[in-house]
Specification:
Number of strands: 2
Order of helices and strands: HHHHHHHHEEHHHHHHHHHHH
Strand content: under 5%
C-alpha cells in the first residue's frame, strides 16, 4: 500500500495526519514526565521521519531561520562555560531538536490544522487530568488546589487556557463549523471548568486577556486596514491609561484579594530578587543553560528548602526573562526576546495591514498569551514544552510565503475590498 506524500507533508492536504500529530504532541508535552522516554521518542517519530518523505519542502531553507535558531544555538554553546556542562549539553540538544521539530511542523502543517489538533489535544489532556488528577497542598499559603495529572496547578491552568483560546479562535477567527464547532464548544466548556478548578490566578487572568484579544481581532477584521491601525492605536492608549488608573486606585490589591494572594505573589517577588542576585555573578553569558537548578548547587538547594520542594526538581524563578538572564546572560535574553518580540509584532503587523489574514490573527493570539505568561512562567524556555513548540511554530510562519487558499471565511459580513484581497492572496504560490 502506497501513501501519497501530500497526505503527510502538504499543507491543506494532510489534515487528518496533522491533526492527530499535533494532538499527540500536546499529550507528550503534558505528560512526558509520567510516561517517560518512550513518549519523547513518540514525539520525535511524528515529525523527524517526514524529512525522509521529501526533505526539500519539509526542511526548507534554514538560512532564513537564523534568527529563530539563534537562542537555541547559543544555549548549546553555553556548555563551554556552564557550571554543569553535562546537564547543559543534554538539555540544550533537547531544546534545539525540539525547535527543529516545531519548524518541521510549521513547514508541513497549516494554522487551521494546528488549531484543530490543539483543540483535540487539549481536550484529551484535560480529560486525563480530570479522570486521574489529584489535589496538592501549597505549603506557602496552606491551601489545597487541583493540579490534575500535573505537578503544578499553573501547568493545568496553562492547558486550560490553550483549550479556551484555540476553541474560540477556531470558531471566531477560522470559521469552523459542523462537528468542529461542536467539539470546540465542548472543549471550551471543559477547559473553563479545569481553569476554575486549578485556581491558578496567572492562568485565569491571562485567559481573560487573550479571550479579549480574540474578540478585538475579530472586530478589527471587519474594518479596512487603515481604520484598523487607527482603532488599534486608540485602543492601546485607552487600555494603558485605564490600567494606570486602575492600579493607582488600588486595583492590584483588589485582584490579588480575589485570588487569595498577597503582595509577594506567593513568594514570587522574593524569587525574582534571588534571580537578580544570581544574574549579577555572570551578567553577560550566564551560568549555563539549565545549569542553575541542579542538585548539589548550593543556591538551588537553599531555595528548594525554603519553598518546600522535596523533589528538588521542577522549580524555577517564575519569570522567563530572569530565568534566561541567570542561565544564558544578557546575550541569551536578547536572542530569546528577539524571537518572542518578532513573532508578536510580526503577526500583529499582518493583522493590521492585510485585509484578511486569519492565520496571523490566530498566531498573534498565541504570541500574546505566551508574552503575558513570560512575566510569571517559563513556558518558552524548556524543551518538550507546549509553549516552546507554539512559539517557534508561530515564528516560523513569518518566514513562509503567505497563502490563504484553504481559508474559509466566517459567516460574518465581508466587504468587496476584503473579497478581492482573498482572491489575490489565493493566487500566491506557496
Amino acid at each position: 500500500m502506497r501513501i501519497a506524500k501530500s497526505s503527510l507533508i502538504e499543507q491543506g492536504q494532510n489534515g487528518p495526519y496533522g491533526t492527530v500529530a499535533i494532538a499527540l504532541s500536546l499529550c507528550v508535552f503534558a505528560y512526558s514526565s509520567r510516561f517517560g522516554q518512550i513518549s519523547i521518542l513518540a514525539y520525535y517519530s511524528l515529525w523527524l521521519p517526514l524529512i525522509l518523505v521529501d526533505y526539500r519542502p519539509v526542511l526548507g531553507n534554514y538560512a532564513r531561520y537564523s534568527w529563530i535558531f539563534a537562542f537555541a544555538v547559543f544555549a548549546c554553546l553555553s556548555v563551554f562555560w556552564s557550571a554543569a556542562p553535562s546537564h547543559t549539553a543534554r538539555t540544550a540538544v533537547q531544546y534545539l531538536s525540539h525547535v527543529i521539530c516545531a519548524l518541521i511542523a510549521m513547514r508541513t502543517i497549516d494554522v487551521r490544522t494546528l488549531a484543530r489538533g490543539s483543540v483535540l489535544g487539549t481536550g484529551l489532556v484535560l480529560i486525563y487530568s480530570l479522570l486521574f488528577g489529584v489535589y496538592h497542598l501549597d505549603p506557602l499559603d496552606g491551601s489545597y488546589s487541583f493540579v490534575g495529572a500535573f505537578a503544578s496547578k499553573n501547568q493545568l491552568g496553562f492547558y486550560a487556557s490553550l483549550g479556551v483560546y484555540f476553541a474560540l479562535a477556531a470558531v471566531l477567527l477560522l470559521g469552523e463549523r459542523r462537528h468542529w464547532l461542536v467539539l470546540s464548544g465542548a472543549v471550551a466548556l471543559l477547559a473553563a471548568y479545569a481553569l476554575m478548578a486549578s485556581q491558578s490566578a496567572t492562568s485565569v487572568l491571562t485567559t481573560v486577556a487573550v479571550v479579549a484579544v480574540v474578540f478585538a481581532v475579530r472586530v478589527l477584521q471587519t474594518l479596512r486596514p487603515a481604520s484598523r491601525r487607527n482603532l488599534f492605536l486608540a485602543g492601546v492608549l485607552l487600555a494603558t491609561a485605564g490600567t494606570f488608573a486602575f492600579l493607582n486606585a488600588g486595583g492590584a490589591d483588589l485582584v490579588l484579594g480575589v485570588f487569595g494572594k498577597d503582595s509577594t505573589l506567593t513568594g514570587r517577588t522574593y524569587l525574582w530578587q534571588q534571580g537578580f542576585e544570581a544574574a549579577r555573578a555572570n551578567p553577560f553569558f550566564g551560568i549555563g543553560y539549565q545549569a542553575y537548578w541542579v542538585q548539589g548547587f548550593p543556591e538551588a538547594e537553599r531555595l528548594w528548602e525554603e519553598f518546600f520542594i522535596a523533589s528538588r526538581s521542577g522549580f524555577h524563578f517564575h519569570n522567563t526573562f530572569i530565568e534566561t538572564v541567570v542561565e544564558t546572560g544578557l546575550v541569551g535574553l536578547v536572542l530569546l526576546c528577539l524571537v518572542l518580540m518578532a513573532t508578536l509584532f510580526g503577526h500583529l503587523g499582518r493583522v493590521l495591514t492585510c485585509a484578511v489574514d486569519p492565520d496571523s490573527a490566530v498566531l498573534f493570539g498565541v504570541a500574546t498569551l505566551l508574552g503575558m505568561r513570560a512575566f510569571v512562567e517559563i513556558d518558552i524556555l524548556t524543551p518538550y514544552h507546549v509553549g516552546t513548540f507554539l512559539l517557534y511554530f508561530s515564528a516560523g510562519k513569518l518566514t513562509e510565503v503567505r497563502r490563504v487558499s484553504h481559508f474559509r471565511l466566517p459567516d460574518l459580513p465581508v466587504t468587496a475590498y476584503e473579497r478581492r484581497d482573498v482572491d489575490r492572496m489565493a493566487d500566491v504560490p506557496s
